[in-house]
Amino acid sequence: DAGVTQSPTHLIKTRGQQVTLRCSPKSGHDTVSWYQQALGQGPQFIFQYYEEEERQRGNFPDRFSGHQFPNYSSELNVNALLLGDSALYLCASSLRGGEAFFGQGTRLTVV
Amino acid sequence: DAKTTQPPSMDCAEGRAANLPCNHSTISGNEYVYWYRQIHSQGPQYIIHGLKNNETNEMASLIITEDRKSSTLILPHATLRDTAVYYCIVTESGAGSYQLTFGKGTKLSVIP
Prior knowledge:
The complex is a heterodimer of chains A (111) and B (112).
Chain A: E1 5-7, E2 10-13, E3 19-24, E4 31-37, E5 44-50, E6 53-57, E7 64-68, E8 74-78, E9 87-94, E10 101-102, E11 106-110
Parallel strand pairs in A: 2-11
Antiparallel strand pairs in A: 1-3, 3-8, 4-5, 4-9, 5-6, 7-8, 9-10, 9-11
Chain B: E1 9-13, E2 18-23, E3 31-38, E4 45-50, E5 55-56, E6 61-64, E7 70-75, E8 84-92, E9 106-111
Parallel strand pairs in B: 1-9
Antiparallel strand pairs in B: 2-7, 3-4, 3-8, 5-6, 6-7, 8-9
């Protein structure tokens, strides 16, 4: 049983560009959350998707958007990249009401 | 902001028990205590959670004080692979349904 998988594992983007990160939840899970983790800090909650809708959102600007597909997979989009967006982006999946399981993350570097 | 306070770092000798404390004095009656750990450059890993009773699983034990204002995560026989940052998180029931607010955690170093 595959756990939470994220792609790509690493990528480098130029300031001002747009990026899309992908997440496949653990089998049977219907809820996906995204987190941003800057170097040396704990993960910060971006938003959560359930039933293809954004259910909760953290303190992140509208440049951060997402989507959940009918198969429960999810995408995180970031527009107009800033140098400060460089971070590890983590996806966590869960069955509504259950524990959250994290993927290995996507390391985004903005230059 | 995180509702928990943890020491920034701790050392533990290999084979000994590691006891990681956490203060959560403002915890509400419907909030659980969750523990996750993050090994360098990997995603956080769920360890254990509890409401008010002590809990044990194959990874660790969780001891919650009677007033629920603090807790201790116990790794009974620490190994080098337990070296990681440990996060104590307070959240409403079903952590998967609610955002997890991470603090800076405790960096546990297991020493040979």
